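Hey L., structure's done. Input below.
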Amino acid sequence: MSWPIHYRSDLSWKDAVYYNKTGKESTVRKTPAVLTIIFLILALASFCKFLELQNAVVDGDGIGVYFLCFEINDRVPNEEIPIYAHRFLNTALILTVVAVISGLAGVLEGARGDAKTSRPPD
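Output:
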């Protein structure tokens, strides 16, 4: 059972203090939001790499594949470029799903009665 939320109208949002379920003053958990942002950035980078590989112009035997300044493979044959592209697309989709789940976990954690403006019972 969680504490009920008590709002004080005399405080602005800047003066609000977060209380945990035991009534002690605490800080807001920012981990789900930070993880969501990191996963979305990685998903966007992976999707951009997918688009780059889909539109790659190859003038020789193959290309080198790099992701975030890391070398994935130095000699990718022309036939395997679409395989690498779809791997980056799958990675982007998985990271997007993980980001959504992480974001929802943060929202649901805040909805349990531990709101930023909650007060311990009197």
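The chain has a mean pLDDT of 77. Residues 69 and 97 are 24 Å apart (CA to CA).

-- N.
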